[in-house]
Amino acid sequence: MTNPNNFSEPQQCSQETTLIMDDETYEVLEQDIGELGSVDNLASHLEEEKPEPNFEKNEILPSVPNEFYEEEDNIVYPDLLNYYNNNLQNYVHPNTNTNIQFQFTFGQGGEDQDWVYSKSLDKLFIKMEKIVPMRFHWEQILNPLGLYIRTKMVYKVEQYRNEPVRRCHNHMAPTYHINQKLDPSVLPYVVHCVNHRGASYEVHDNHLSILTQLGSYEPGTQYEPMCFQFLCKNSCPSGMNRRPTELLFTLEDSEGHVLGQKELSVRVCSCPKRDKLKEEKELKKTSEELIRQNSGNKMSSCDTHPYKVDISVAGKENFLSVLKYAHDVMAGQASRTGQYQAFKPYMDAILRKIP
Question: Which residue, of 63, 71, 80, 247, has the fewest CB within 10 Å?
Answer without folding.
Answer: 71
